[in-house]
Write a structure and sequence with these properties.
Helix content is 72%, strand content 0%. The chain is mainly α and 568 residues long.
Length: 568
């Protein structure tokens, strides 16, 4: 056993492709790389969340006074952190005549939209597993030098995601009976069912857009998606104004589609968004050329490629489902503590949305992309160092932001809600919430980023099923139903569970066989034999812009400018 361990450590030091000694400036250059690639992704995530927030904001303005509805819609959507999106919506609504409508008020509309979104968001989760592995697979392909495999993974993702969505979309027409089975009010079920039917158009185009975004961002090309998302944040606001209230045509007697106009708006904007992105990236800029095998080559039908893709993707269906169940179950259990408790919980979620809504997925994806790149390149020592760097950056950055949030807790909560009965408990649970977030982001980077790039998606699913579900939901249920605990106790228990999970995952990562994962990554991408591979292959300073995820030249550690990959 000791001989094997010693051999593993020696192999890690020596690498698989005559990996040179890691220079002192490596981590500094990696931080620059992560920031260069990551900040446009962060903006993109905020804009995507903002689009959903806009819909709730406009629905909340139906049949009520503007400012009251704005407050109710923000809290009701549980996305009150998107203040910017709400302000955009308010700008369009400032001159709207909010007269009487169909006998429903903002509470009914918001409840119906919220319940509809709750059901449909759960329904659309499983197919998304087929694009969740793209960051790891494409970055490995870029590192291996076999760039055409990046396009093969995208093609497989597009095909499997589309096929799996077809039966899911049929279920959108049965949201009403689903909610009726759960015992919700008949009128709310009618509204929610109608709202869901008009949302049936966007999941597949939205899935395609995610596939294309992940494909290019794993190559280091992230700004076009950011600009596209920023533009469509405004487009979606305009479409809401137009389709919900009639927009500029109100003076002509047309008052929009009302409640369903928000769903139509989202379907239009999320269907046009991938079209414009495809026209720019594939048709105009042709950024895919170096990494795209033609459809006629049918590389996506190769049995080994399909097997490798399914091995990565299928376990993530379970992961996504379990995580959704944990989130919904926890929310429902906290609701048992009373109206003030659920309001305080929603307020704290809104106050920390900047961390959970954009920072967590950005850090996870960037960390996974960099680890995947070095594994594909056959450089396990660098992959291990990047993994540790990503975890350290995630924990420290979240910790600093958490401390700032705690210091400014009172003014932050004053922005989220003006109700003192909600502010006080929300502020009291904020320390536990922040500690939970630090641990949760470490867990997210380790599981969705590092372990996924190592190809260990089954372990990620097992952790969700065997750890998060029983411990997180189980501990909350026991505290609520058995011990009749208060809100603060429940949140501190969740923080302890998250810390425990982070410790377990760190222990798993510390025992990672990095050379083994590097070999598997190269075999998955069809890379050269380790003995014949060269660390510089396909990654020199003159390489095409699509390979610029390697912003460092392994041979001389010189920084390669990322500018070419983000602008025509």
């Amino acid at each position: 056993m000791s001989t094997s361990a010693s051999s593993g450590r020696r192999e890690l030091r020596e690498g698989l492709v005559a990996e040179e000694e890691v220079p002192a400036s490596f981590l500094k250059d990696e931080i620059k790389t992560m920031c260069t690639v990551g900040w446009p992704m962060l903006v993109s995530f905020f804009c995507r969340f903002g689009m959903a927030s806009e819909d709730s904001a406009f629905v909340g303005h139906l049949n009520t006074k503007t400012l009251v509805a704005l407050s109710q819609s923000a809290l009701g959507s549980r996305l009150a952190g998107q203040v910017g999106a709400a302000l955009v919506a308010y700008g369009f609504l400032a001159n709207s005549d909010l007269g009487a409508g169909e006998g429903y008020g903002p509470k009914e509309y918001l409840a119906a939209a919220g319940l509809s979104d709750m059901v449909t968001n759960i329904l659309i989760i499983p197919p998304l597993a087929f694009n969740m592995s793209l960051n790891a697979l494409v970055s490995q392909a870029m590192g291996s030098g076999n760039k055409k495999m990046a396009g093969t993974w995208l093609q497989l993702s597009l095909i499997t995601l589309t096929a799996s969505y077809l039966p899911v979309l049929i279920s959108f027409f049965f949201v009403k009976p689903m909610l009726q089975l759960l015992g919700f009010d008949e009128a709310i079920c009618d509204l929610a069912g109608l709202y869901a039917k008009f949302n049936v158009f966007w999941p597949i185009p939205n899935g395609w857009y995610q596939c294309m975004r992940f494909y290019f961002q794993a190559q280091g090309i992230t700004r076009p998606a950011m600009y596209n998302n920023m533009i469509f944040l405004m487009v979606n606001a305009f479409l809401n104004w137009l389709l919900v209230f009639g927009g500029p045509f109100r003076s002509m007697g047309w008052h929009g589609f009302g409640f369903v106009g928000a769903a139509i708006s989202l379907s239009c904007s999320r269907s046009m968004q991938p079209l414009f992105y495809w026209l720019y990236m594939f048709v105009y800029r042709k950024a895919h050329i170096d990494t795209w095998p033609s459809w006629s080559e049918a590389t996506f039908t190769n049995r080994e490629h399909v097997k490798s893709f399914m091995d990565m993707a299928l376990p993530q269906i379970g992961t996504l489902i379990f995580q959704a169940v944990v989130g919904q179950a926890t929310t429902l259990l906290i609701a048992k503590l009373g109206e003030v408790a659920i309001s305080a919980s929603a307020a704290s979620s809104a106050a920390t949305m900047v961390l959970t809504g954009g920072l967590s997925p950005t850090l996870s994806m960037v960390g996974g992309m960099r680890v995947g790149f070095y594994l594909g390149k056959g450089e396990p020592l660098r992959a291990a160092k990047v993994a540790n760097l990503a975890l350290g950056l995630g924990a420290s950055l979240t910790g600093v932001l958490g401390i700032i949030a705690l210091i400014l807790a009172n003014p932050i909560m004053a922005i989220v809600t003006n109700d003192p009965e909600v502010q006080k408990p929300a502020i009291s649970i904020l320390p536990a919430v922040m500690l939970n977030l630090v641990a949760s982001i470490v867990v997210s980077i380790a599981t969705q980023g590092i372990l996924t790039s190592q190809g260990r998606t089954k372990i990620v699913t097992f952790l969700s099923m065997g750890f998060e579900l029983p411990l997180s939901v189980g501990s909350t249920a026991i505290l609520v139903f058995v011990f009749k605990a208060n809100l603060q106790t429940v949140y501190w228990a969740q923080a302890v569970v998250s810390i425990l999970e982070a410790v377990v995952i760190m222990a798993i990562l510390s025992r990672s066989d990095w050379p083994k994962f590097a070999r598997e990554a190269r075999q998955r991408q069809g890379g050269q034999d380790d003995e014949e591979a060269s660390p510089e292959e396909g990654q020199g300073p003159d390489a095409h812009q699509a390979s610029e995820i390697s912003l460092q030249d392994s041979a001389n550690n010189k920084q390669v400018s990322p500018a070419g990959g983000e602008s025509k």
